[in-house]
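Notes from the pairing session

We agreed to fold both candidates in a single pass and log them together. This is the raw record for the first candidate, unedited. Please don't reformat it; downstream parsing expects exactly this layout.

Candidate A
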Amino acid sequence: MELLSDDQKAALVSLGSPIRFLADETIFLEGQPSHCVLLVEQGNLKVTRQAADGTEVTLAVRGSGEVMGEEGVLMGETRDSTVTAITEVNGLSISAEQLLSFVEEQHLWPMMHRAAVRRRRQSDQRALLARLDVGRRLVQWLLELAAEVGEDDENGLAIPSTLSQQDLAWLIGASTDAVLTELRGLRSSGLVSIEKYRIVLHDPEALSQLAQQLNKKKQSVDQLGPFGVIWEAWNEARDEIINKPLSHFKRAVEVQFEEITEHLAVGDRAAAGREIVDVISIAFNSLRWLGYQPQDVAEIVRSRVEWRMRGQALAILDKYQRLYGI
């Protein structure tokens, strides 16, 4: 709507039929034909897409004044995402035929097509962003939003927002608890504050530097290869992990092997395999408990393999047999 003149906005509004959706009601469903668009007059919606692994990725939260679903109509494609009402939503429904005729009559094709392509690209970027850990997602989102709608303020850079913390969690595809944990860290560092109807970035430059540091940490996690996702999945519980006693990890391993035994007793090798992955996660958390970072773990693994395992595997098995009878 921001691309249209006042007269064009009025003409578009005149085409719509009033429509209302309740909170949690699905408005558009990914994969369905694009038969209409929605001009949002009141309320908030979330835009989601199903990732390749079946998980739901939150791409955006939209509000009043937004036109939803125009990408599919303008490009002649099915819905590329699902739109769901967060709150009660009131708006105007405009058929695909009406929108296309309006765009043609107003000579808006180039501008509207570019806008649709840009929004599609932003959705794809957010789909990738949602695969990052919660801290990086939150910081990246704050910086992007500040660049788009931030306003200079005596306390820093203010972002007008009516989002609740639950809405924010939806937006970046994380649990509310995880977002609250990250926000507490940003607040305690004096980087961010959440006020009524706005988010204030007190030191955008420091926040940008933090984003760079988090990206460097990601690079260190990459050294763990396919196991890096296990390390990242447990980042939100870091404080709890480092405060556990050593006996916690010992007992956790015992419990996992008890479950592995139960699965194998009924011939469920797939379930046993999943439990073994959990054992690996316990090993990583034990190293985290010792204060190691991913790059340290990667170096320990390389060193241990080279000096203790390579060429000695049979001798190690023999030692276990002689000394422990296993």
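Candidate B (folded immediately after A)
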Amino acid sequence: MTKLLLAEDNDFSRDILARRLARCGYAVITASNGPAALLAARAHRPDVILMDLDLPGMDGRSALRSLKNDLRTFQIPVIALAAEASVEEVTQAAAEGCHACEAKPLVLRRLRRRIADLLAGRAGHAGSHAGSIVSSTPAAIKPNRSSSALGSGSRPMN
């Protein structure tokens, strides 16, 4: 079972995406800020990290640099999640060690394909957490009505 770390500060978007990924069969660990993402990556050793670039506490870029400079986490592929995936932002994320960048609103089908492509050469790291969601931050999840997250299929979501 593929284990994902989802680092996203928007509670509603994080909850919806984590649930959708879990329904697709991934074990999902969540973090709501940069420091929590670093701790979760070190503790859970996910197969792939999905990292929002605009995280509080420590932005995604700083967290990414820390992950890539840590012997425990430097080999974990990272997909940057960017609200505005400009050429400059994608180039900067790649220079800092991201393996891919996905623009928000996310398209689940494309994100799943990107995850599969990254894992193609990384067999044997699967855990036994079928369809589970683990939160590395104990804060209660409150829906943010200003976010537009959609249900199933390949429709966009924030």
